[in-house]
């Protein structure tokens, strides 16, 4: 009986081990960019398995960002932007990246004024540079914006979609994860980075409607920590059983 129980225990342990996928353990501090591009800060965003890297120069009031996320389907799109009024979709000055008709990554700018349709347009912020890349199912938006002087925080909004038709991103899902993909980015916050020579911070606090608090570090890393603790407990329990 004891041997059967121990066998069942270790079988369950292996199932749990394989359940912890690499994507749940991924954090922004482990991500790197080509051409030795580096950013001062990064954060694991609390929804849509997305990440933001940024550098803010208060003297010039310029914000350089790299937004990383996987589209809802291989032919989909990813978006990141700033809303000058509130952390909400309407009014967001957005960058949307997707593959064009030739399969080449492109990024375009949109002033989001409607839930039903969007039109490519200039942003209210001066865009100094922007580009998009894609690798291993992850799309990346790189952009540098000129913000108003003395900016301390910005309302950020991010999103993913599943389709692009005739060069036009189609509407995204309205699942809970899609609806809470917004927050406040504190540009004055920085902290020690792990292993990249820069700095790392979880400076994103979600809006009140999302139910997230500012001291949370993001869904993926939080899940991984919980599962790792449980895994360690089971492992110690199994070792104790072997001593019986």
What percent of the residues sit in helical stretches (DSSP H or I)? 10-25%
Q: Give me the side-by-side strand order of the main sheet.
A: 6-5-4-9-12-13
Question: What spatial form do the alpha-carbon principal axes imply?
Answer: globular
Low-confidence stretches: 8-25, 191-235
Number of strands: 13
Q: Which strand-content bin applies to the residues? A: 25-35%
Main sheet properties: 6 strands, antiparallel
| Order of helix and strand elements from N to C terminus | HHEEEEEEEEEEEHEEH
Structural class: alpha+beta
Oligomer category? single chain
From the alpha carbons, calculate the radius of gyration and give it in angstroms.
21 Å
Report the total helices.
4
Q: How confident overall, as mean pLDDT?
A: 77
Cα(first) to Cα(last) distance is 13 Å
Please tell me about this protein's structure.
The chain has 244 residues and is of the alpha+beta class. It is built from 4 helices and 13 strands. Strands 6-5-4-9-12-13 form a 6-stranded antiparallel β-sheet, with no helix packed on it. Strand 2 and strand 3 form a beta hairpin. Helix 1 runs antiparallel to helix 4. The protein is globular. The chain starts with a helix and ends with a helix. About 26% of the residues have low confidence.
């Amino acid at each position: 009986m004891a041997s059967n129980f121990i066998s069942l225990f270790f079988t369950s342990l292996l199932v749990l081990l394989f359940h912890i996928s690499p994507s749940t353990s991924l954090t922004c501090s482990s991500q790197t960019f080509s051409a030795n591009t580096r950013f001062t800060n990064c954060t694991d965003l609390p929804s849509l398995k997305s990440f933001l890297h940024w550098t803010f120069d208060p003297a010039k009031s310029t914000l350089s960002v790299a937004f990383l996320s996987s589209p809802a389907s291989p032919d989909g799109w990813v978006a990141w932007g700033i809303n000058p009024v509130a952390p909400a979709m309407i009014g967001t000055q957005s960058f949307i990246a997707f593959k064009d008709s030739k399969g080449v990554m492109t990024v375009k700018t949109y002033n989001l004024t409607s839930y039903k349709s969007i039109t490519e347009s200039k942003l209210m912020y001066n865009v100094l540079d922007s580009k998009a890349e894609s690798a291993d199912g992850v799309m990346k938006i790189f952009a540098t914006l000129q913000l108003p002087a003395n900016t301390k925080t910005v309302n950020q909004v991010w999103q993913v979609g599943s389709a692009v038709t005739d060069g036009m991103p189609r509407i995204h899902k309205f699942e809970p994860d899609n609806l809470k993909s917004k927050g406040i980015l504190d540009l004055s916050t920085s902290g020690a980075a792990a292993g990249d020579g820069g700095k790392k911070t979880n400076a994103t606090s979600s809006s009140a409607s999302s139910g997230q608090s500012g001291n949370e570090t993001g869904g993926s890393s939080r899940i991984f920590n919980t599962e790792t603790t449980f895994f360690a407990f089971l492992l110690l329990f199994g070792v104790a059983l072997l001593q019986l």
